[in-house]
Every structure is written in C-alpha cells, then in structure tokens.
Write a structure and sequence with these properties.
- Two copies of one chain form a homodimer.
- Chain A is about 50% helix and about 15% strand.
- Chain A has a domain of about 180 residues: P-loop containing nucleotide triphosphate hydrolases (Rossmann fold, 3-Layer(aba) Sandwich), CATH 3.40.50.
- By secondary structure, chain A is of the alpha/beta class.
- Chain A is built from twelve helices and seven strands.
- The longest helix of chain A is centred in the middle third of the chain and has 18 residues.
- Chains A and B meet through helix 2, helix 3, helix 5, helix 8 and helix 10 of A and helix 2, helix 3, helix 5, helix 8 and helix 10 of B.
Chain lengths: ~250, ~250
C-alpha cells in the first residue's frame, strides 16, 4: 500500500487534484482509496474512504465551544491527535494499492502543529509514502514567489520528513509564455535575472535551490488531466525508492 | 517613521511580543504606535492605534455570510484588500517613531494571499520597514524543525520582500541545554549531525543556510523581556540600512 499526501497553501487545489488523480488512477485500473484529513473542509467533490470529520468537525467545534474561526481551526487540528488511535484503526482497514490523502486547507496547520507530522507517520505506518506539494501557478508565475514556494516546499519537507514531489498546480491557467518562463526557471536559467535586486544570502539560497533541484516542478491541470502521466511516473519513481537518501556513513559533514 | 512587522506561525507569540516590545520601547522613551492587521484575532492585550477589525471582522464575516471557519478566514483576509484605500488613509494619520504591526495568526494567509504583500507595502509606503520572523522555541528545539523554520523564514522573506530578522520566541520555555544546543546550530556547528539521514538536496540547502546566515536567530522572551536589547539593536541595524542588498551591477550570475 502506497500513501500519497497532497499538501499546499490554501487554494492551491489539493481537494480537486485528489478527486481527479483518483479518477485518473481508477481509469488505469488501479485500486485507489481516499482519506480526508481536513476537519474544516466544507464540500468534498469525492466520497472519502475515511473522513476525519467523522471524529472532529471544525464547524461543530466552533459552535460547541463558541470559538472564533482561527481558534476553532487550531483546536480542531489539535483534537484530531486525541482521536489518533481510533483513526489509525479505521484507516488500517482500508485496502488499496494507492491511498490519496487530502490535508488541511492551510499547510501551516498541517506542518507546524504536532498533529500533521504525527498523524501522517501514524497512518502511513510501515508503508511507503510521498508528499505531493502543490505550487499554485497563480503565485508561481512571479519569480520571487516561485522561489518562495520552492523554499516553502523544502521547509515542509524538513518538517514532515517524507520524500516530496513538487507540482505546479492549475497550469491550465498559465499562458504558454508564462509556462515556458517558469520551466526555464526550473531548469536553472535566468531566475536570478528575473528576481531583480536580492541580498547575498538570498542569492546563495537561490543558487543552491536551482543547482540541486532533482527535478523541476511538474505542471499539472486537474481540469484537463494535463501532466498526470508525468506526476504518476515521478510518484512511482519516488515510491520505488529512486530518491537517494544519504546514510550516516556517506553523509559528508559541513 | 519605521515599521516593524511581526510574523510567524500560529501560536509563535506575535501578539504578545507586539505588546511587550511596545512597552519596552516606551520604557526607552520612544514614540510607539501599534497596528493590528489580523481580522480574526479574538483578544488583544494592547489597544492598537489602528485595528483592521474596524473594517473587517472574521467573526462577523462568518456569521453574515454563513461561512465555515476556514473560508471565513480567507474571505476576511481578501476583503481587507477592498478596504486598502481607507486603511492607508487612517494609518497615514499615525505619528510615531516606531509602528509595530501585528499580522494574521497564520503566516500563510498573510504571505501567500495578495493582501499581505500589498497591504504591507502600502502601509509602510516610503518608510523603512523590517519583518521580525518568530521561530517558536517549542518547534525550533528539534533539529529538523529548526531548519524547517529557517527555510520558512526565507520563503516569507522572498514573498514579502522586506529585510528580515529571525527571533527565537518564547526562549524562557527552553532549558539552558536546549538553548545552548540551538545556539550551536545557529553558529553552524553540528546541525548536520543532529539532522540524521537527509538527502543530498537537503544537505546542500542546510549547508547554504548555515554558512550564509547573517546572524543567528535572537532568543527572546516576552515574559522576561530577555533578548529585547539584542532585538532592538538588530532591528536598528537593519532599519539603518546595515543589510547589504546586491544591486543589478554587482549581482553575480549563477
């Protein structure tokens, strides 16, 4: 069983890609299940095999405890942890080749509260897992935001400790020229030119990111299924262990 | 007039430090004003000179439009932009040496919706501004999360395009040993050892971050005012233009 988590900033298209990528895998005759881990999602375009809202619903939490929107989101995420045992038990009953996991609307709540990290390692268990990080094309078409999203992606990777694949979501909203432009950044060209004035620390960071990026973000559209073949191939590669991790033995020291 | 923005993940202590750092500056006989830009904050321990809730209140938005907690937060942040003209006009009337700006509970909503970037550049205008990024000590005491927060800090810096100072908030919650440990990471020692197994991309990123960090995060406590002198000195240095920005002429190319 393979777990594929979908993370990204609010509005990056996590829920939509979970639905469309599920349909795509089913079309390939794969056995697929879906999990919703967002206690605050209002409408789901798919019927999840496991829904965290059966245990914690942010709307109910808000009303029951008379909380404001911000507090109720945080409390809901934290409450999920108190149900971890029951959740794990229910998820263990799912049988499928691929389990697609939809995460909370705001990646920060998933990544920087304890819940996200603990629940994700708990539900993936001994199975292989990958995190698909969605970079919203609307933001990524601007050079500074492109770099910012790559840094955010790396930040999430360090925190969740899962192998990660970057996706340029909603690529259908980009003009051909914008897409070409982003692709040229991914291949290391002209990103520094397009960034304008940056300080030396930022310059070194950009250089490291561009020079060491395993593979550029994959442009994907959940409207046209554009890029789903590439995404599937990359996810397969990572799940098969294609990504090299440094072991303690060959880990060079700074 | 100098603008000091305070950003950080939910619970990092933004609101508390705004209050305590304001009191600290007043004790130094500075002329200080405060701005609240969080439409969803429920209680403020200080009376702001400008409060965005006078224009957009997330609680009201939620009730009026019958929205869930997540949607109401996003809608509220986006609505702030529609009031930008009036907000700018009211803020322009503030007179103070230092204006401390409290930002939305979740840094993601401030940094990755258009509102944060536009409102922050609008209200700072031609004045010098600095962003104080709070790294929650509770998270930062673990090596992977420490690196993750530094990456998140860089991601925010790229997106907001303001000079930035990193602060280790709630440092009073750390044991002496934990604090020493974090300090040794900031100075470039043993962080790679403490990270355990990482892939090559992550290794290069860590190396770049550690080697190029201008100054390590400043441990600060809003309970004891510990570190406020250092924070003030660093903020002053940045506001005085002590941070070098590469100009187009001396910007080396990758």
């Amino acid at each position: 069983m393979y777990f594929i988590f979908f993370t990204g900033t609010a509005g990056a298209g996590k829920t939509t890609i979970v639905k469309e990528f599920r349909d795509y895998l089913i079309d390939q005759e794969m056995d697929v299940a879906t999990i919703n881990l967002d206690p605050a999602v209002e409408n789901l375009p798919y019927t999840p095999d496991f829904d965290v809202r059966d245990y914690v619903d942010a709307f109910e939490v808000m009303q029951r405890y008379q909380l404001g929107p911000n507090t109720s989101l945080i409390v809901s995420i934290d409450l999920v942890l108190s149900k971890a045992g029951e959740i794990k038990k229910e998820i263990d009953e799912i049988e499928a080749n691929y389990v697609l996991v939809d995460t909370p609307g705001q990646v920060e709540l998933f990544a920087y509260r304890d819940t996200g990290r603990l629940i994700s390692s708990l539900i993936a268990g001994e199975n292989r897992a990958v995190n698909v990080f969605l970079m919203d094309s609307f933001l990524a078409k601007e050079a500074r935001s492109y770099v910012s999203l790559l840094l955010l992606s790396s930040a999430i990777k360090f925190r969740l400790n899962l192998p990660q694949v970057n996706v340029l979501s909603k690529a259908d909203l980009l003009s051909e020229k914008e897409l070409e432009n982003i692709k040229s950044w991914g291949e290391g060209e002209k990103i520094v030119d397009d960034l304008g004035t940056i300080d030396e620390y930022s310059f070194e960071l950009v250089k490291t990111i561009v020079e060491n990026l395993d593979s550029p973000p994959i442009p994907v559209s959940s409207v046209t299924d554009f890029g789903f073949d590439e995404l599937y191939a990359e996810v397969q590669k990572v799940l098969a262990g294609g990504e090299d991790y440094l072991t303690e033995e060959n880990n060079p020291r700074i």
